[in-house]
Amino acid sequence: MKTESQLPMTGANLWKKAKKIIPGGNQLLSKRSERFVPDIWPAYYKKAKGCEIWGMDGEHYYDFAGMGVGSCILGYADEDVDTAVIEAIKNGAMSTLNCYEEIELAERLIGLHPWADMVRFGRSGGEACAIAVRIGRAATGRNKVAFCGYHGWHDWYISSNIASSTNLDDQLLPGLTSKGIARQLGGTTLPFRYNRLDDLEKIVNEHGKDLGVIIMEPTRDHLPEAGFLEGVRKIADRIGAVLIFDEVTSGFVVNLGGIHLTLEVTPDIAVFGKALGNGYPITAVIGKKEVMDHAQDTFISSTFWTERTGFVAALAALRKMEKTQVQKLMISQGTRISEGWKKMGQKTGFKIHVSGLPPHTHLGFDTDSNMEIHTLYTQEMLKKGFMFSPAMRCNLAYTSTIIDQFLKASEDCFDIVSEAVKLNNVRSLMMTEPASTGFKRLT
Ligand code: PMP
């Protein structure tokens, strides 16, 4: 086992430097070291292949910490996807004309979702949600949006916290402020909780004739209660609102398409991102013609939404997902890992909970000092060469042997942590401050 002095620290030191010249340190909250093991997390990589990452000092890790925030379900630097992308780059990734792969990808996504007729594309999940909401408002001519879940950083969404600074707390991220957003947007975006049709009915009672859009993740960590999604669909139909399913995270996780195909509830628009391009930036907004056509009534346009590599990557990724049946594999991997954790919990008597859809299986520690315990566990896993986060993501590159090694390392770390809890010395074994979730200034 590596000791503190043996842990390579170049990446951790780079992170300190980054925070001085990049406000917030980087471009994505989920890649902040403070969320894992502050001051120790490797933070930067030189190479990523399959489910392996090599840090700045050449140190080697297996990635059980999210696989590029859920974007690489085929593994990093997948050869089939990369070959297609390299070919596209050689033939010019940008030109004055459009790339024909846009149409191929649109047809492919419509083929996978026969209820949809038209598609627009973007590059990030947040902007795709903003496109979808804009189309929904344009289609209905109404102002207000009801939402459930996380949908990105854009003004329409974060403005929810103007009316109440805690509106977004239940929706994944506490601590978000609405600074920098026009106050006049306050009260236009209204939250409802998952599985709480009564919340949505209340919004409808108060704002019914102004409510044009309902946007939600069809599922996040667990499946909906019977009748919930169907109930939302009925409400949208009753009041004439556009129903958007944000499948940026849930898409391509349990099947080759949106999870709504499995849940058998059809939206008017669905948004995809993350896994679609296996790490290359491409997001899609698919929908029914009568709604999507309103994208022509409003200005939605951007130079790099036309760049070629994203489309080509998505087409190659979809081909490979279909060929490998990766979703089935991820379900069995996740089931195995969660069973393993449950056994470790029973063996040590340590209080844990295991949740999430199998491909996104999630480990949580149920104690008063859970952030300390989580930090110690992540620190010890790192010493054993495993990057760990509760938001781990299964993928094509996990072999049975790698999962065996991961479970063995997990068991050892469970023992270390449960022993530390018994001896009441968790804090003294920690090499850093506890990790923190939520949003806050870093410097
Ligand atoms: N919607 C959902 C459901 C998400 O999970 C995310 C990202 N975590 C987003 C939107 C935003 O996507 P991006 O980070 O690509 O902008």
Q: Summary?
A:
The chain contains 16 helices and 13 strands.
Q: What descriptors fit this protein?
A:
Aspartate Aminotransferase, domain 1; four-stranded mixed beta sheet; single chain; 13 strands; 443 residues; alpha/beta
Structural description of this entry:
The two termini are about 35 Å apart. With about 450 residues, this protein is an alpha/beta fold. The relative contact order is 0.16. Helix 13 runs parallel beside helix 15 (about 400-425) and helix 14 (about 370-385) packs across helix 15 (about 400-425). Strands 4-10-9-8-7-5-6 form a seven-stranded mixed beta sheet, with helices on both faces. The chain is built from 16 helices and 13 strands. The chain has two domains: about 5-75 and about 325-430, Aspartate Aminotransferase, domain 1 (Alpha-Beta Complex), CATH 3.90.1150.10; about 100-305, Type I PLP-dependent aspartate aminotransferase-like (Major domain) (Aspartate Aminotransferase, domain 2). 4'-deoxy-4'-aminopyridoxal-5'-phosphate (PMP) binds near residues 124, 125, 152, 246 and 249.
- How is the CATH topology of the largest domain named? Aspartate Aminotransferase, domain 2
Strand order, main sheet: write it out. Answer: 4-10-9-8-7-5-6
**CATH superfamily (homologous) name of the largest domain:** Type I PLP-dependent aspartate aminotransferase-like (Major domain)
Counting DSSP H or I runs of 4 or more residues, the number of helices is 16
Helical percentage: 25-40%
Average pLDDT value? Answer: 95
- What would CATH call the class of the largest domain? Alpha Beta
Order of helices and strands: HEEEHHHEHEHHEHEHEHEEHHHEEHEHH
What's the architecture of the largest domain in CATH terms? Answer: 3-Layer(aba) Sandwich
Which regions contain 5 or more consecutive residues with pLDDT less than 50?
A: none
Number of strands: 13
Shape: globular
Helix-strand category: alpha/beta
Termini separation comes to: 33 Å
β-strand amount: 5-15%
What ligands can be seen in this structure?
4'-deoxy-4'-aminopyridoxal-5'-phosphate
From the alpha carbons, calculate the radius of gyration and give it in angstroms.
22 Å
The total tally of domains equals: 2
